[in-house]
Amino acid sequence: MSEAHTHEPKLQALHALQAQRLSEAGLARLRRHLAQCEPCSAALRGLRLHAALSADLRASTPELAFGRMELAMRQHARQAAQRSRVLRFAVPVVGALAVAAALLLLVHRPVRTPQPQATHTVVASEVATREPVPLLHAVVTALRGQASVSSAQLAAQPLGVDRVVNEGEVLALEANAELHLRLAEQTAIALQDGARVELRALRQGEIQLGLLSGSVTSQVHHLVATERYEVHALGYTVAVRGTHFLVSVANGQLRVVVEEGHVVVTDQNHQVVGDVVAPGVFESGASKLGALATKLVKPRVAGVPGTLWPALVLPAWRNVAAWQVDGSTFAASAQLAMRVPTGELTLTAQLGDGQLRKTVVTIPPEGLRVEDDVLRRLTRVADDEPRELKPEAIMGVVQQGLPVLQRCYELGLKQQPALSGRLTLRIAVDGAGRVTRVAPRGDAGGVPEDLMSCIRAGVSRWRFPPTGGSGLTFDAPIRLEHQHQH
Amino acid sequence: MDALDPLVRRAQAGDERALHELFVRHQKDVARIVFRALGPDADLEDVVQDAFIQIFRSIARFRGTSKFSTWLYRVVTNVARMHLRSRKARPQMASGVAPEQVLHANPEDGPERLAQRHARMRALYRHLDKLSDKKRTVLVLHDFEGLAPAEIAQVVEAPVLTVRTRLFYARKELYAALADDPELSEIAAQLQKEAGDSEKSAGVP
To answer: Is the Cβ pair A52, B187 closer than 8 Å?
Structure first.
């Protein structure tokens, strides 16, 4: 084997070369060596690439939505603070008990029997660090129609989006209602049409639901061996391991539909009566397994309490049969309220004749109730379609309005001297070409509010060519750039 | 040993506002450490949140035997390492395409330059993904975060000599992989040319 193949590059020398720390003589020696040593030349290429790519990396900072994260962090800070306070109280108390127990043992121990001193310390430390199983607080993420919650201590109260429900409470839905409940991370249920469900156990690693009537569809994350997720109904227990399934009771019969995963159904005597692998159906009347015929509702796991997404409210609308929102589909038979993320959201209406109509709505942090005129436009007949507004016509108006934006930018620079970047404005105009709405598209967290207010005020005065109909919405991208002073 | 920062003391005592203030004060540091540990990753925001949850949970155990920043590096680096392990265990898409993390661009950066930078960073992390956890952590902390070997030794709880050894082998493996990457050959040629030009202008014979 030649020297070139066994030679180990001297990284220290290469680093010195890169940092220009070599003497002239040293540099000449190294260059002569590099000319005939391929492993060293390759290492130098790699070193230079690494230096250049590292510089790229150091020049980039991630753009995260800290504002959105802050809400979740407040929740975690609260929980951590509570836990810390409990431990601060528990440790001295348990420590004192352990000392007392140790003294008691010392007093009562047989004289000739030595006691291992460490035993009690270990027990005390184990007791002090063991935490009770935390209770889960489920939260309503979507609701269509009317539903209520009650318990032994609580008279029935109406449920709404974001309402937190707890272990021991019973949820009851009216006919034609649908409720989505997030139970834990990646675990949620959907109740439909007159369902009644008791939250028998709602703890970290243990969820037990009692289905009293109707049906419950579960979406369960993958469980580890020590975790339990069970639905009890009519004396049967449906136990699962990470799956998507429905349990329903009607006329004294149990029905289990499994769309994903694997569930085991046991009776009151703990005998396995059904072992259902998706896609499959179990029916207690005939103790039979069948094929899956219909697609199950997908329960929404979104809208955790800490992140508190804003509410979207969609009233019942005469010719809309169903809504498709953020990956979920709901019948439009009653008002629908649900938590959705801020920013743009595509709202799809399925009309009575099967047509799909889409519109994009911007969900502000305070939530949105979709107004009748939006629904009217969304479900309008084709004759009302607005005429096209050509891009050059839009750009012409934007160009004329640039001085206004420039003044706003200068105002923004006073507040935030490094302010620069791209901003896309979503502008809605009515049929006469008047601006009815201006909003930043996407996340505009970094844009100072004063700048945005100034832009809104300026753009609202722009006048576009009339389009007829009920108007239209378009995007206008603008670039905010420093004019360097020389 | 430094005296404990009053804010840290309050956070240890279970003061909810102090914990929140810790988040506000260190959010950018934690995001930067996670970003440099993982590279452009779609889960960046989740990992940053996980890191803060871990900080909140374990701050009571911080005794001030090291600087708070060193302890922060230790917690955040461990969370990032756990994420890397779970990411490796997850099935990957055949194309290897992942949603891109949005980066803050310099004002003079055009979209083309930004896209090139993204591509280079993806290439860098593709090779970093092949290093062992321990070597990668040391390299990231030293070469990207600029930490001295003695501080890295405290972060990873290993002797300084071990840190230097891991750094040496991490660099050796990474340099070899970068030099062999055909996607980077154009940049390598450009860098070689720039190095030659700079030697000429410095009067090197």
So the answer is: yes
Q: Measured between CB atoms, does B84 come within 8 Å of chain A?
A: no
The model's pTM: 0.44
How much is the ipTM here? 0.81
* Chain B residues lying within 8 Å of A65, measured CB to CB: 45
- C-alpha span between A216 and A218 (Å, rounded): 6
CA B93 – CA A290 distance, rounded (Å): 34
**Is the Cβ–Cβ distance between B148 and B159 less than 8 Å?**
no
CA–CA dist B56, B141 (Å, integer) = 23
Provide CB contacts within 8 A for B93, sequence distance 6+.
Answer: none
Q: Can you tell me whether residue A478 is helix, strand or coil?
A: strand
Rounded distance between C-alpha atoms, residue A258 and residue A261, angstroms? 7
pLDDT tens readout for residues A322-358: 888 877 788 877 888 887 877 778 888 888 777 788 8
B113 touches A: beta carbon within 8 Å: no
Domains of chain A: residue spans and CATH = 3-108 (no CATH), 138-283 (2.60.120.1440), 311-379 (2.60.40), 391-480 (3.30.2420)
Chain B residues with beta carbon closer than 8 angstroms to that of A22: none
Q: Do B52 and A73 touch (CB under 8 A)?
A: yes
- In angstroms, rounded to a whole number, what is the distance separating the alpha carbons of residues A439 and B190? 44
